[in-house]
Amino acid sequence: MLSRIGDKWSVLVVSYLGPGPMRFNELKKGIGGISQKMLTATLRNLERDGFVSRTVIPTRPVSVEYELTQLGHCLLVPVQALAQWTIANIARIDAARAAYDARPPE
Amino acid sequence: MLSRIGDKWSVLVVSYLGPGPMRFNELKKGIGGISQKMLTATLRNLERDGFVSRTVIPTRPVSVEYELTQLGHCLLVPVQALAQWTIANIARIDAARAAYDARPPE
DNA sequence: ATCCTAGGTTACCAACGGAAACCACCGGAA
DNA sequence: TTCCGGTGGTTTCCGTTGGTAACCTAGGAT
Known about the structure:
2 copies of one chain form a homodimer. By secondary structure, the first copy, chain A, is α+β, with helices and mostly antiparallel strands. Helix content of chain A is 64%, strand content 13%. The first copy, chain A, has 5 helices and 3 strands. In chain A, strands 1-3-2 form a 3-stranded antiparallel sheet. The longest helix of chain A is centred in the C-terminal third of the chain and has 33 residues, at 70-102. Chain A binds chain B through residues 1-3, 5-8, 11-12, 47-51, 71, 74-75, 77-79, 81-86, 89-90, 92-93, 95-97, 99-101, and chain B through 1-3, 5-8, 11-12, 47-51, 71, 74-75, 77-79, 81-86, 89-90, 92-93, 95-97, 99-101. The structure holds a DNA duplex. Chains A, B: InterPro entries: HTH_HxlR, WH-like_DNA-bd_sf, WH_DNA-bd_sf.
């Protein structure tokens, strides 16, 4: 169960959808490191678990909008806490990592 | 960067180490679904990133104790928030999943 | 007719993770 | 002595996952 929530792409997608609905290619461009395949798979799973809703909009080239559901917004709270913690502590992690890598290889 | 924190085993290990130090096999038994290989790898990475400390205790069969560092305890806060959210909302996720799976295959 | 864009799906392949075997150390039992 | 058990790992093999890139569908513009 934690495996779905602990999935790195899911966390990122939920974070990106926090401010408001986004289209498929917006997400893809915004997240940056994700492959199209994984983005579709991640969105399918998030939809299945009730975190996001998928809406097909009949524009000229059909566009698809993804949006957090109520449950998704609710999940966003702890997820953003984690994301903000990470941002606030990257420097400390990098420092620890550098110290670890630089220590004598016993 | 989120990839290390978003890793499901890391989240679990940090949660288990929350209350206090644990030995290798205690962790393995407690977590339950983890392979020995992944537990060692996860602990190495957590140690490298400064979240846990590794202490070899010279008992009769040498035992190894893992403990959260100050940074690890700090990370524990948002991680536990996420874990508790999950526990509190498993039912809703399961319901959404059942509804998704049961819906007409269009 | 052909191309382009949006959103996917598929084929192929490299890398990751799990299971289980093996290893090193040490003390005690046979 | 030799064997066994219990620590904390490492290695080998193999199945699954994820990335890359090509292809697909449908509508509009050129």
